[in-house]
Design a protein that fits this description.
Order of helices and strands of chain A: HHH
Number of strands of chain C: 0
Strand content of chain A: under 5%
Largest sheet of chain A: none
Structural class of chain C: mainly alpha
Number of helices of chain C: 10
Chains: A mainly alpha (105), B mainly alpha (491), C mainly alpha (215)
CATH topology of one domain in chain A: Helix Hairpins
Distance between the termini of chain C: 100 Å
Oligomer: heterotrimer
């Protein structure tokens, strides 16, 4: 078990906890798609924390470079996801998850 | 720090086309996509030409540029395949795009960007450009699926695809972060040597698990396949064609590159995971397609099944397995191009509200196609037989290579599953042929065929004939593939 | 326990709590605010780790741009239309149990996997080197990736505009291409019917045209 001083493990476990919270949120969400998009942002955030923590631990800046790129990518992803959400809202008038049933899967 | 731009000419050509189209739209206010189409096709073929002219030297001398980018014979082969794939997809889809009022410059911008992403992924040798290439490949696709904004089915498909795709990318990124943590480096070369020395095996494995999950999504392998039928059905058919061919090339190269190089010490774990994915994919692809009444959904499940065979070839883990996998994806792309090409030449229409009638892509629309258009029926037959793996079509040799590699390396049970599912799957491919030849046309559904350009017709016929000819002389393509991989050394 | 340790635990608790609030909150504006709080706290953690450029970038880009975008979209979506009722207790308990199991599994794997002898984190130096070193890398070794991210941002912009841009919906306009492309089949459908014969009613036939003519 990790001790009291924050070590690498603490950061990794924190990131893992974020990942799991996000997944639980996705599974349990029955209200709207917006929360689903936010949960995806949380997953990316967890990965970023991993990158930064390892980068500091290894004294290797490439992890932080990766994080910088991921930040930009996540922003772009959000933009497109929100655009799709707006399209959905214009079509269906609501963003409840239940209404995503036109396609039978 | 300066470096030569020569190795990056293909990407630069695509980028130049992007910029040119953007500039052209500011000059001319018309929303017509003809100029953009011309620029795109020109750029694609110029890129292929530049690729071969400038990078032929890397066939014998593979080179890693600046530690981030790889240039060797396999990147040459696969990047050319990706560029030619887009060119053919756009050629076949031209009439369909015009009819659906998607003949706009933006459509080509999105296609170009996605293909640029594919080219980047195929050439990447570092996790940073790799991830960026994957996102560049995927983000335009999310928008392209929902391009028919008035169609509720399209928008829903786009949103579902986006959400699942973003989640899969997130998982993949988490996996990459763990691999980085286990090895301390993001460059694939360094990861390879560090993984070999047994660094943090457990962390590496966990990272691999997440990475494979994300990758399986891109490949539409079970159980990450849920998006495929909906997306193929809801997206414009050209987009479905593109999704089923070009990005898969990138995903396959990524998979094989990781397996054969940096993460090869974990081969045993790879094989376990991939076997699980492969078996499920083959079974689902064979069984679920039987119940489908819409050809696009059927082709989606067909793709899922094919990815199963591909994974079988990959998991073998030896050079002949990898060669078989690459050969398989190339035969699959060729066959799918013909199948979708014929579908694109059918009259898929929308009603006034913009909602897509499934008319044109339902199986019922192929009833008696032989009487209405023998050429289309013949081409579709070639495609269906090739996808089913019937000799002497090209598809047969793809399956044969994969199953042979599996048998030779001791994967008996997997080979048995592969053969069995192949036989079961043949049912729905042959059903299409039966509908075309042995049923009479449905008068209500039979509508006139849209006007297809001469070039598209000729190329489609050549494509279909190639399935037969290359099948009669399989060593042509097979040797090319094997040789490319042999020279590559690093894949 | 050193000050930095206390900081870590405080931030960690806030981080996890606000992350939970993101997925729990019913109203999307509350969820967005919780996400902003999560991002702020994460930036603080990164700054304590010594990655100050990233911490600042997170605040400026993510909170400053992306969360504002989220909130704009939430406001556009007219929250009044939907009742934010908690209709999800059914799925909550199994999901939380599943999540707890997953977390324990991942945690065990991580703890077993980290074979490094010394996992203490280096103390963050007080110098301002971080941004400069990052810049050197970004414009040096990672120049290719930098160009790629530029294209990615461009394509994001194009995609978002393509999806949501609407021509002026209320302007009436004609499209000659569409008008010319109309075919006879799409406008007229000739149906064959059995012939109908008129019953001969001469007595009432004449008054009716006069009535109609008088209107």
């Amino acid at each position: 078990m990790p001790g009291l001083e924050p070590t690498l493990l603490h950061y990794l476990l924190l990131a893992a906890a974020l990942l799991v919270i996000s997944l639980v949120g996705i599974i349990a969400n029955r209200r709207n798609v917006l929360v689903l998009l936010m949960a995806v942002e949380l997953v990316l955030l967890a990965a970023n924390l991993n990158f930064v923590a390892f980068s500091v631990y290894y004294h290797d800046l490439s992890g932080q470079v990766m994080t910088a790129f991921v930040l930009a990518t996540a922003a772009t992803e959000s933009a497109i996801g929100l655009a799709l959400l707006i399209l959905l809202f214009r079509r269906r008038g609501t963003i409840a998850v239940q209404t995503l049933d036109v396609l039978k899967g | 720090m300066t470096f030569s731009l020569i190795p990056f000419l293909p990407e630069l050509t695509l980028l130049a086309a992007l910029v040119l189209i953007l500039l052209a739209t500011t000059v001319s206010p018309s929303r017509d996509g003809t100029v953009a189409y011309g620029v795109t096709q020109l750029a694609l073929w110029v890129a292929v030409a530049l690729l071969w002219l400038t990078q032929a030297r890397y066939i014998v001398n593979p080179r890693i540029v600046e530690g981030v980018v790889l240039r060797n014979s396999s990147t040459l082969l696969m990047q050319s395949a990706a560029l030619i794939g887009l060119s053919l997809a756009l050629l076949y889809g031209r009439a369909s795009l015009i009819r659906q009022k998607l003949w706009q410059p933006e459509t080509f911008l999105l296609f170009l960007c996605s293909t640029l992403g594919v080219v980047v992924v195929i050439g990447a040798y570092h996790f940073v450009p790799l991830y960026l290439g994957l996102e560049l490949m995927a983000l335009p696709l999310y928008a392209m699926v929902a391009l028919r904004k008035d169609d509720a089915m399209s928008v829903e498909a786009g949103l579902k695809y986006f959400f699942l795709g973003a989640l899969a990318s997130g998982f993949m990124l988490y996996g990459i972060s763990l691999i980085y943590g286990a090895t301390g480096s993001l460059g694939l070369a360094a990861v390879g040597s560090l993984a070999m020395s047994g660094a943090s095996h457990g962390l590496l494995l966990l990272g691999l698990f997440f990475l494979v999950s994300g990758l399986a999504f891109k490949l539409s392998a079970v159980p990450f396949h849920m998006w495929a039928p909906d997306v193929y059905r809801g997206a414009p058919t050209v987009v479905a064609l593109f999704i089923s061919t070009v990005p898969k090339l990138a995903a396959v190269v990524l998979l094989l590159r990781l397996m054969s190089g940096p993460l090869s010490p974990l081969l045993v774990y790879w094989q376990g995971m991939l076997a699980f994915l492969a078996v499920l994919s083959m079974i689902v692809g064979a069984v679920a397609a039987i119940a489908q009444t819409n050809l696009k959904r059927m082709l989606a499940y067909s793709t899922i099944g094919h990815m199963g065979y591909l994974l079988l070839g990959a998991l073998v883990g030896t050079q002949d397995g990898f060669g078989a996998a690459v050969f398989y994806i190339l035969t699959y792309v060729l066959s799918n191009l013909v199948a979708f090409g014929v579908l694109l030449s059918m009259n898929e229409t929308s009603d006034e509200s913009g909602a897509t009638l499934s008319r044109g892509s339902d199986l019922e629309d192929f009833r008696g196609l032989y009487k209405r258009s023998p050429i289309r029926a013949a081409l579709m037959t070639l495609a269906m037989l090739s996808l089913a793996g019937v000799p002497p079509l090209l598809g047969f040799y793809g399956k044969f290579a994969v199953i042979a590699a599996a048998l030779m390396n001791g994967f008996i049970w997997l080979s048995v599953v592969a053969i069995l599912t192949s036989v079961i799957a043949a049912y729905y491919y042959l059903r299409v042929i039966r509908l075309m030849f042995f049923s009479s046309p449905d008068e209500e559904r039979a509508s006139e065929f849209p006007c297809i350009g001469v070039v598209a017709r000729v190329v489609l016929v050549l494509n279909g004939v190639a399935l037969l000819v290359l099948g009669l002389f399989p060593s042509a393509l097979l040797d090319l593939t094997v040789q490319a991989l042999a020279w590559a050394r690093v894949l | 326990m050193s000050f930095s340790a206390i900081l870590f635990y405080v931030f960690a608790v806030i981080l996890l709590a606000s992350a939970v609030r993101v997925v729990i909150m019913q109203h999307p504006v509350h969820a967005a605010m919780a996400l902003a709080q999560t991002l702020f706290t994460m930036a603080a953690i990164w700054i304590t780790l010594g990655a100050e450029f990233l911490g600042l970038a997170l605040v400026v880009i993510y909170v400053g741009a992306v969360m504002v975008l989220f909130l704009f979209v939430v406001m556009m979506l007219d929250a009044r239309q939907q009742k934010w009722t908690p209709r999800w207790q059914r799925h909550l308990v199994p999901a939380v149990i599943l999540g707890a199991v997953m977390l324990v599994e991942i945690a065990l794997l991580i703890m077993r996997g980290v074979k490094m002898k010394d996992t203490t984190m280096p103390v963050a130096s007080a110098s301002m080197e971080n941004t400069r070193e990052l810049g050197k890398l970004l414009f040096g070794q990672y120049l290719y990736s930098l160009e790629l991210i530029a294209v990615l941002l461009l394509v994001g912009m194009i995609a978002a505009i393509v999806l949501t841009h609407r021509q002026n919906r209320f302007a009436k306009r004609q499209d000659p291409a569409e008008q010319v492309a109309v075919t006879r089949e799409s406008r007229l459908r000739v149906v064959s019917m059995a012939a109908e014969t008129e019953a001969p009613e001469q007595s009432t036939a004449e008054p009716s045209p006069e009535k109609e003519g008088g209107q």
